[in-house]
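Sequence design from tokenized structure. All designs in this work follow the same two-part layout: the structure record, then the generated sequence. An example of the structure record is given first.
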């Protein structure tokens, strides 16, 4: 881990060495409250996705505002969150390795733990690991609702797996996991609604089939930052899993807004400095190692006349009208194209307010890939 930045609360932003990952607390806190208020007003459970921030501190703030727990994607992420004091974690992914499942089972000594399954092999392995778990593990049947990634396809297969879950005292049926990741960045509201209407129909079909067998479905969970108002209004989902809303990257900002949901502000930035100048471009110290470009390049916050271009490992090029190009040592904020993998590049988030350092947060799950 990179050492904690040599900063104290009250230091000016100018004291932050660049590139650095920063959060504007005014926007961040507003985003937290907006989602918490949305869920409370609709009587729906909020389980934010921890893979966005990988931070136990942020997760505990979300839970303090009413979230029932967090999601994550990896056992090592769950371990980092639980070690930091998060008491309820759902791994929204399939895990087959016995060694990883044993680690997951051990976490039940400290927190409520859940995991998804979509195969007989995955359930067999989980049953074996759960025999040594201090407390029961919540098991969610993952259903493919249109994303074409994980999840059972045939409703009958899902029912058969849930019936097996009920047969084991060390397991507890948590519900149906019906997340449509592919719908999150469909740009128009109509496209997103069509995708989630299909997902809700699939989840409802499975729920009805299970109830016909006398199996109660306590939770139907899914939804992301791009679609959560649609799931919340569906009458099928009673839990939502948005993650990126706290930061709002450039890609989510490109979506057509949904008037049924709150508007979120960009709060996460890569703080960068100009390190070289030419007559017609500026070079900044934030290149490919400073932010993820899988969802295209970042934009420059508050400077729409500037365009990020031609990154290399440690350099980025800013182009625009000559009169608008920043000077040597000038600082700018980049809005990452994709916040989750950008956060994973850093060990610390520097939270700022009113032009000053306010807090420094460790990214507990940075690099947690297993």
């Amino acid at each position: 881990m990179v050492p904690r930045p040599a900063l104290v609360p009250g230091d000016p932003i100018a004291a932050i060495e660049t590139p650095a990952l920063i959060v504007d607390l005014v926007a961040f806190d507003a985003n937290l409250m907006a989602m918490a208020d949305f869920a409370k007003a609709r009587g729906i459970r909020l389980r934010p996705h921890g893979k966005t921030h990988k931070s136990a501190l942020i997760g505990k703030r979300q839970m303090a505002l009413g979230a029932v727990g967090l999601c994550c994607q990896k056992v090592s992420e769950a371990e980092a969150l639980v070690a930091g004091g998060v008491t309820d974690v759902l791994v929204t992914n399939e895990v087959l390795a016995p060694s990883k499942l044993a680690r997951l089972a051990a976490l039940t000594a400290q927190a409520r733990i859940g995991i998804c399954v979509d195969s007989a092999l995955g359930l067999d392995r989980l049953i074996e690991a759960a025999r040594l778990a201090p407390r029961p593990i919540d098991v969610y049947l993952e259903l493919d609702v249109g994303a074409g990634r994980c999840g059972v396809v045939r409703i009958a297969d899902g029912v058969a797996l849930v019936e097996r879950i009920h047969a084991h005292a060390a397991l507890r049926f948590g519900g149906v996991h019906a997340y449509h990741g592919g719908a999150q960045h469909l740009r128009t509201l109509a496209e997103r609604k069509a995708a989630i209407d299909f997902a809700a129909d699939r989840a409802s079909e499975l729920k009805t089939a299970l109830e016909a067998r006398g199996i109660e479905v306590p939770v139907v969970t899914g939804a992301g930052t791009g679609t959560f108002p649609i799931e919340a209004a569906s009458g099928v989902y009673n839990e939502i899993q948005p993650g990126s809303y706290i930061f709002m990257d450039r890609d989510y900002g490109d979506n057509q807004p949904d008037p049924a949901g709150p508007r979120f502000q960009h709060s996460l930035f890569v703080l960068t400095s100009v390190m070289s100048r030419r007559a017609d471009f500026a070079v900044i110290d934030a290149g490919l190692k400073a932010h993820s470009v899988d969802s295209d390049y970042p934009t420059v916050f508050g400077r729409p006349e500037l365009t990020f271009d031609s990154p290399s490992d440690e350099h980025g090029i800013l182009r625009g009208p000559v009169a608008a190009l920043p000077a040597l040592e000038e600082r700018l904020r980049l809005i990452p194209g994709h916040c989750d993998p950008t956060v994973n590049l850093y060990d610390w988030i520097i939270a700022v307010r009113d032009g000053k350092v306010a807090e420094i947060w460790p990214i507990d799950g940075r690099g947690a890939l297993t």
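The first strand starts at residue 20 and ends at 24. We note this feature because it recurs in several other targets discussed in the main text.
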